[in-house]
């Protein structure tokens, strides 16, 4: 009987227990209603048993404290304070309370268990926050901009006015880890109380040690402590301390395979040297002196034949005046030297300058030294005429001209335009068949004299032009006129030695002499007789300054003709060259002026 009733008893007990549990749960559900479950905290504040509105009020102190809490970030000797308002940080109270109130209200059967568990189990909910992403990023950028830096080796500067030397310390590279800083700030804002944290920064060591900077500073102080005296080429230049301060720079010196700087040193650049010193260094520039040849201005004897003739070189003694090197200020060499002088605190030194060799040194001059008068010629004039002044002026310009092998001699290039302001006067010049006065006129006689000297020297004749009509004071067919810039006398030195052109004059004659190393045993001039004669004409023109029927002759007459001159150069060692020069002279027409009737 008892065994038959056992299931009934067990069922009744279980039913009673279940009913009791349901009764208890129902009581809890009714008791807790819309309140936050017990043992529920936010930021250490117990919110259990509070309605959401009450929980919101309970959290206000925490929220206000969070608004006042700052984050201080430290790097080296600097601090950066970030307030919640700087990044738009706020506690989302409604979301925080809603999260706490959701405990045990996620749905059965879990809700029933969580409600029972809340009677003895505490559960912490975090503050829900919101912030302005753009404001946070801007504050991170602001901090990074102040902190980020490239590696700096330091600097030492001397003030040119006060001579005070200042040192700027070296610094390693610094770079803020921006993403990490963003995370650090976000997390710190949620923590209670002000935070003091290290700023997340990547750094490199200081490239130059402080003791190295101090050593260079001592050198700079010594450099500007007193003047520096430089001497060269017989000249002296004093660099005052203020000038030295403007000259020197302190620059990093690379060390090791990576080329990274490890120390500093005084540097003087050629550019800074030229900028600061300007033309004060021109005193160290001295032109080189070419070797020269000591020759007599006048030849041993005159040579002046008008017709067929010959000339042979005349041996003479010519000394060589040795050349002298010059000097030139060399900015690069001077900059290197000054760096060392400043580093060693030297106050006086011989400046290293560039040696400038002469174009013609003594040894080369000895090889080219003239041994003979290879050509000379003399023509004559009546003293006191204006054209004589021009001839003598041009002779002085050309005298002692050196023509090296393969160089070309040119009267026009030597003289330039023969203007009155250069010492020339007005004298007769043939212009369109008539003699008229022009500045520098009459110098064609010098052209003829020079041409004949070159003719009998046997050198290469490059350019000459005979007068348009024949003038009896010149060798027929062996003469030349001048007119700048077109009509010139040019010859090339095709000998192995130097040619020295000397000019000399008296009150009645002009002589041009060429000293050199001869290429000809003899040079001959064979003149032919005039042919193809052309009679002159008479040109008449009316003028107002003569009475009716009166006349005056402005220019006399001469006939025109053609003549040939054969030049024969008999070479030293054998062989000869011939050149035929054919000249056509126009007639010199008679010009008469008559008074108007």
Percentage of residues in strands: 25-35%
Give the uncertain stretches in residue-range form.
16-22
Rg over alpha carbons: 56 Å
SS summary, helix count: 15
| Count of DSSP strands | 39
Class by helix and strand content? Answer: alpha+beta
Shape: elongated
Q: Sheet with the most strands?
A: 5 strands, antiparallel
Helix percent reads: 25-40%
N- to C-terminal distance: 192 Å
Mean pLDDT across the residues is: 91
Domain YoaR-like putative peptidoglycan binding: 81-166
Keywords: Membrane, Transmembrane, Transmembrane helix
Protein name: Vanomycin resistance protein VanB
Region (Disordered): 282-312
Walk me through this protein's architecture.
There is one protein chain. By secondary structure, the chain is an alpha+beta fold. Among the domains are: 1-33; 213-284 and 324-357, Ubiquitin-like (UB roll) (Roll); 293-323 and 358-595, no CATH class. It contains 15 helices and 39 strands. Strands 18, 33, 34, 37 and 38 form a five-stranded antiparallel β-sheet that branches. A five-stranded antiparallel β-sheet has the order 19-24-32-31-25. α8 packs across α11. Keywords: Membrane, Transmembrane, Transmembrane helix. It holds the Pfam family VanW. It comes from Egicoccus halophilus. This is Vanomycin resistance protein VanB.
